[in-house]
Amino acid sequence: MKKIIILALGLVLFLGTGFYVYKNYYKWPWFSNLNPGGGKFERKENKLEKYDFDSLKKRGGIGSDIKIEGETVDVNIRRLNAIKATLPKKKQKLAQSILNKSMTWKSEIFSFQSNGKKISGMINTPMTPMSNKMPAIIMIRGFAEGEGYYSGSGTWKVADELAKNGYVTVSLDFLGYGLSNNESADSLEARFEKVESVMDLIESVKRLPYVDSSKIGIWAHSNGGQIALSTLEVSSADYPTVLWAPMTNPFPQSVLDTADSGTSGDPIRKLISDFGKRYDPRRYAVENYYQWIEAPVIIHQGTADVWCNVDWQQEVVNKLKALGKSATLYVYQGDDHNLKNSWNQVVGQDIGFFNSILKK
């Protein structure tokens, strides 16, 4: 009887230990790469390691052929409405004719490949002889809701002004938007993979026969600013870059700041906590790699912006200058996140900046 009790206790202890290991193996650093499956433990890949800045730098950009998908119907409607807004009611019918005459560029939906996935966007091509190679500006938008999204959203107005001035402008949708394939179900991977998307787009644009591959610039807004800076770092390329109200709050604080202060923000806080247990967040943080930037950067920031603030941008510029980099901050009193009040001034300044470097 005593032996039976000992055996029973041993079995309970064995099963209990096994269940505990099964539920908690991922918490132990020495056990973190093991995964139960098929009756044995198998290595579990730390899938986000390939997105740390050292890995992205080694990977580089991978180009593919750019495919034209069709016309920019949604943006054309907005272009037309913008002209109508400037005309009296009696002359509304003239809007289409005015738009046709003003369009000195061709605007189309395009797609390219990144990591085997299709990503779409909008490309504006000035109507100049294709034998004349033109400079190109990569346009990187900020955050956008999926509902009501259209290719060119967040960039088309500035892209049109640049196209008028002889620049090929290329606005990407990112995965999960437009005609693109779905983004990763992992919200952090969906964030990190955007840098690869931009790097691959740049290399794809360089393949276009009418683009001067030595004259590439970047324009970015809001969250796109963080992506742009990351791209400059991992590429160490001299792409002149303009940032409108960039999200330069350090990672992962920039993600935590988007979490609701109540219980609805708990999943985001847990996500970042779990990420920190498996990875070193410093290796994914743009502010730790400013020394890799080799391009001139200008930043525009409004003082009434509720999302980004002047102090963040001043700190970025100060750090870049301390490293001997070319960086300038322009501050606009009372202006918002989209620089609405100073829009014409800012766009004119951007065109002058790009012209001084890319049209020498």
Describe what you observe in this structure.
It contains eleven helices and eleven strands. With 360 residues, it is an alpha/beta fold. It has two domains: 1-44, no CATH class; 53-250 and 285-358, 3-Layer(aba) Sandwich (Rossmann fold), CATH 3.40.50.1820. A nine-stranded mixed β-sheet has the order 3-4-5-7-6-8-9-10-11, sandwiched between helices. α2 crosses α7 (223-235), α3 (73-84) crosses α4 and α6 (187-205) packs across α7. The termini are far apart. Residues 21-44 have low confidence and may be disordered.
Keywords:
single chain, about 350 residues, alpha/beta, Rossmann fold, 2 domains, nine-stranded mixed β-sheet
Give a brief description:
The chain folds into two domains: 1-44, no CATH class; 53-250 and 285-358, Alpha/Beta hydrolase fold, catalytic domain (Rossmann fold, 3-Layer(aba) Sandwich).
Q: DSSP helix count?
A: 11
Q: Would you tell me the structural class of the helices and strands?
A: alpha/beta
Going across the biggest sheet, name each strand in turn.
Answer: 3-4-5-7-6-8-9-10-11
Biggest beta sheet summary: 9 strands, mixed
- Name the beta content range: 15-25%
First CA to last CA: what distance?
A: 95 Å
CATH class of the largest domain: Alpha Beta
Rg over C-alpha atoms, rounded to the nearest angstrom: 25 Å
CATH architecture of the largest domain: 3-Layer(aba) Sandwich
> SSE string, helix = H, strand = E?
HEEHEHHEEEHEHEHEHHEHEH
**Silhouette:** globular
| CATH fold-level label of the largest domain | Rossmann fold
